[in-house]
Design a protein that fits this description.
Length: 864
């Protein structure tokens, strides 16, 4: 055939022949690429090469790529190797195998059956995972055998079998053996199964066993699911409410019925349903007031309104809590009917973090050392001139100039080294992204689920565009949680009005302590959107509230004034397939939105901001992200993930106590919550001697608005510097400590020397250079060397950073690129010096212990 002839010609090309060599002896990246290209050939020789490599491959991630290449044409030898690899693998690899097998069950079903008698725990977990997700009689029979086995079987295997049966054949568990089992975990699965077989007998059984224990929450969920699927059962539960005998039963039924108040309360006009007022009172007694208030605000029936308002008036007069709820959230015209006046949300003053013993002294000591390091060193080198003040002055100035050159040479050489690593790392990341097909990334259950948390404080100008952008992302499974952190503008009102939100009673557990919750809002038309309103507690506190509400594997912190590219999450999370170690944190690339055209949350065109201040910052961002974070990640030393776009393992965050806040268990606030969390997660992982990864993904773009005026810029940089100082002091035990490996020996010292003490050293160096010029103490060679090392080297780095960034994405046109090239030169004459001076002053301002998040002037996103 034509195809065969084309393939025959293609196989002998140098490129294809090189893939056959790379699959055997290349690097991990090359073996992954070879697996991708050989799979595309679909020739017997290519398949044989993939099979042989799979048999000898040791790296879990490479083995995953090989499995994916072979999965549609897997032979028994290769399948046997995969099953054998499960016996000594980590959790991530086992999950990949489970996901691939589930998505390609038809092609591996026959080969899997002989393993039904295998007693290995990993194999059993695999089969039970498949039994939970695929309707297959053999798999469900296997789950029954595990559950009823008289042999010794691990407890978690029995629970997995229960979960599989509850999902696929729930009728199996509908016996008293399981429904009344002494183990509450078994009961929970059985009750969940019961909810899938709705009947009056089912409803009666659940109601009769409500007993005031923790199992009532499971029974509540089961009844809610039954009522949700069929309106007749809603009426039956409503009728049963009148005849239940215990208060526990009444309260559970009231909660179930609260989700359908619009329907139920309209029946209060019917004399036979007079007891519905008791349901309202039960809900109010449980502080479930949100749905009642929402109903009253939308109700048009005057008779029903009068009945409900009589109860409202009584509760408002008896308890300050209800009075606050009604006067804050009921419409003014309704409040006037019951003689109440509306009032705004209360403003609660944020408490300050307790002062850390010795912190101010620590800051002053190291700031003084940074400031005096070169002068003292120069003095020691010129002790022979102590008797001659003029010569001493000249010697000190000359020595400082020579030593500051060494300092700038060291820091710029470090940046150059990071730049080289960044070029290598970004190229490898691009090559890995290019071999991941959408069909793989969107495979069910392969990538972790994500909860995006967007804290918002006074963001009314940009909040709708930002949330719309988040709702339009390309990712298999995610939710968006917007946390309004006590904004003083109309942020929450703008959200409610635009998305037609309804206030609902919170259904999540507060695992992390935060400032008080004001309300939870949902949208019927957008089920993956949750909006939370809370008292002001700062960005970290808002993120902790979002983590409490989150349900997914990872939480993604993003500023509410930021926009993500559609595939940003996909690019970010796809790196979890490249290493089986746990990714505790991942960060995306931050791109200035200033100068871009935005329409409905999407970037229509890219461009450079018009203001000079924005353009200087743009160059800084390119340099910091392109030459810095990729390089640090390549060294396994990355200690900072931008708060504008960071992603963290939810379980890891919960274990370490969440973001650092005075409301939380660690009783401390910081304005550098993003970096602090990465440092703490790294610290905990190294303490536990756990294999982990912190990654930066340069092509996962997040667009954020840069400060366009000096006041906002200085506030931002002040916050960054104070946060850095706070983190360095709080985690100072990591500094130069070999126990904490690369982060302790390289990452932490870099921030300590060059970011904390560096501004003081640079100020002294610039001052000495200026004095040297004024008094003619520097010859032409010294001046040239100083300028080449401090300015010339920096310009080269900026140019390389711009080259690398523009090589990946054409963010700017030719004219804008030329402007940035010129700025790489001009920023060294004033802008950098001012920023260094401000960083030094910000370090000293950390003595004031201010932990506020601060605000920034916003232009908002507009289409031009």
């Amino acid at each position: 055939t034509v195809r065969t002839k084309i393939l025959d010609d293609l196989v002998v090309t140098p490129f294809c022949q090189s893939q056959f060599r790379k699959i055997r002896r290349g690097s991990r990246l090359q073996r992954k690429q070879a697996a991708f290209y050989l799979h595309a050939l679909e020739t017997p020789a290519a398949k044989e090469a993939l099979r042989r490599q799979l048999m000898r491959e040791k790296n879990p991630s490479v083995r995953f790529y090989l499995m994916n290449a072979l999965i549609l044409d897997l032979d028994e030898r290769s399948f046997s190797v995969i099953m054998k690899s499960l016996r000594s693998c980590d959790e991530a690899y086992r999950h990949w195998v489970e996901a691939l097998f589930k998505n390609h069950y038809g092609s591996i079903e026959a080969m899997l059956r002989p393993y039904f008698t295998d007693t290995d725990t990993s194999v059993r977990h695999l089969l039970l995972y498949l039994a939970k997700n695929i309707f297959d009689e053999n798999l469900q029979r296997y789950a029954k055998d595990i559950l009823n086995s008289v042999l010794e079987v691990e407890d978690d295997l029995r629970l997995s079998a229960l979960e599989a049966l509850a999902a696929m054949v729930p009728e199996t568990l509908l016996t008293d053996e399981y429904l009344l089992h002494p183990d509450e975990r078994v009961q929970a699965f059985a009750i969940k199964a019961l909810a899938t077989q709705p009947s009056r007998e089912t409803v009666d059984f659940i109601i009769e066993h409500i007993d005031g224990t923790s199992m009532d929450e499971v029974r509540y969920i089961a009844l809610s699911n039954i009522v949700l699927t069929s309106r007749p059962y809603l009426l039956y539960v409503l009728d049963r409410y009148e005849n239940v005998t215990t208060r526990d039963q009444r309260l559970v039924l009231a909660r179930v019925l609260s989700q359908h108040l619009d329907y139920i309360l309209l029946k209060t006009k019917d004399p036979s349903y007079a007891y519905i007022t008791d349901i309202i009172e039960d809900l109010l007694d449980m502080h479930v007031v949100e749905q009642i208030i929402d109903f009253i605000n939308r109700n048009k029936d005057e008779v029903v309104q009068q009945i409900v308002l009589n109860i409202v008036r009584r509760y408002a007069s008896a308890d300050p809590y209800y009075l606050d709820q009604f006067t804050i959230y009921l419409k003014p015209e309704i409040l006037s009917l019951i003689g109440l006046m509306p009032k705004p949300q209360p403003v609660v003053k944020r408490e300050k973090s307790p002062k850390e013993k010795g912190k101010n002294v620590w800051i002053l000591v190291w700031s003084f050392i940074g400031f005096m390091f070169f002068p003292v060193l120069a003095l020691l080198l010129n002790l022979n001139h102590l008797g001659d003040p003029e010569q001493l002055f000249k010697g000190i100035v000359s020595s400082i100039n020579s030593k500051i050159v060494i300092y700038f040479l060291a820091v710029n050489t470090l940046y150059f080294f990071l730049l080289i690593l960044s070029i290598i790392g970004s190229r490898q990341r691009n090559e890995l992204w290019n071999i991941k097909k959408a069909t793989l990334l969107f495979a069910h259950d392969l990538l972790p689920s994500i909860s995006i948390i967007a804290p918002a404080y006074n963001e009314e100008k940009s909040i709708i565009e930002s949330v719309t952008s988040l709702l339009n992302l390309k990712y298999p499974k995610y939710e968006v949680i917007v946390v309004n952190d006590g904004s003083k503008d109309r942020t929450i009102d703008t959200l409610i009005e635009h998305f037609n939100l309804d206030r609902r009673h919170p259904m999540f557990k507060a695992s992390l302590n935060t400032k008080e919750l004001r309300g939870v809002y949902t949208c019927k038309d957008i089920p993956n959107l949750i909006v939370i309103d809370k008292q002001n507690g700062g960005k970290a506190d808002a993120l902790n509230m979002g983590i409490n509400a989150a349900k997914n594997d990872y939480v993604c912190g993003i500023d509410a004034d930021s926009l993500l590219e559609e595939d940003a999450l996909l690019k970010l999370m796809s790196v979890t397939l490249d290493d089986s170690k746990e990714h505790i944190a991942l960060g995306g690339n931050i791109v200035p939105v200033n100068g871009c055209t935005v329409d409905r949350g999407k970037i229509e065109s890219r461009g450079l901001g018009k203001k000079g201040l924005v353009r200087f910052q743009t160059l800084e961002y390119l340099r910091a992200f392109t030459t810095g974070r990729v390089g640090w990640a390549k060294m396994h030393t990355l200690l900072i993930i931008s708060g504008a776009f960071g992603l963290f393992s939810r379980q890891a965050i919960l274990k370490t106590g969440g973001y650092l806040t005075v409301s939380g268990q660690l009783k401390k606030d910081t304005v550098g919550e993003d970096m602090e969390l990465v440092v703490r997660l790294t610290y905990e992982a190294l303490q536990a001697k756990k294999q982990y990864r912190v990654e930066y993904v340069h092509n996962a773009n997040c667009y954020t608005e840069l400060p366009s005026d000096g006041t906002s810029l200085f506030k931002q940089r002040n916050r960054w510097q104070r946060g850095l100082i706070d983190i360095l002091h709080y985690h100072r035990q990591m500094l130069f400590n070999p126990r904490y490996k690369q982060p302790g020996l390289f990452g932490f010292p870099y921030f300590f020397i060059f970011e904390m003490m560096g501004p003081f050293m640079e100020i002294v160096g610039y001052a000495a250079f200026a004095l040297g010029l004024i008094f003619g103490l520097l010859d032409i060679v010294a001046v040239i060397v100083f300028l080449m090392v401090t300015i010339g080297y920096g310009i080269v780095l900026s140019l390389f950073a711009l080259f690398v960034a523009e090589r990946e994405v054409n963010q700017y046109n030719d004219k804008e690129t030329i402007i940035l090239l010129l700025l790489a030169f001009f920023e060294n004459f004033g802008y950098r010096q001012v920023i260094s001076m401000h960083r030094a002053l910000s370090t000293l301002s950390a003595l004031k212990e201010k932990g506020n998040w601060g605000s920034q002037k916003r232009q908002g996103f507009t289409k031009t």
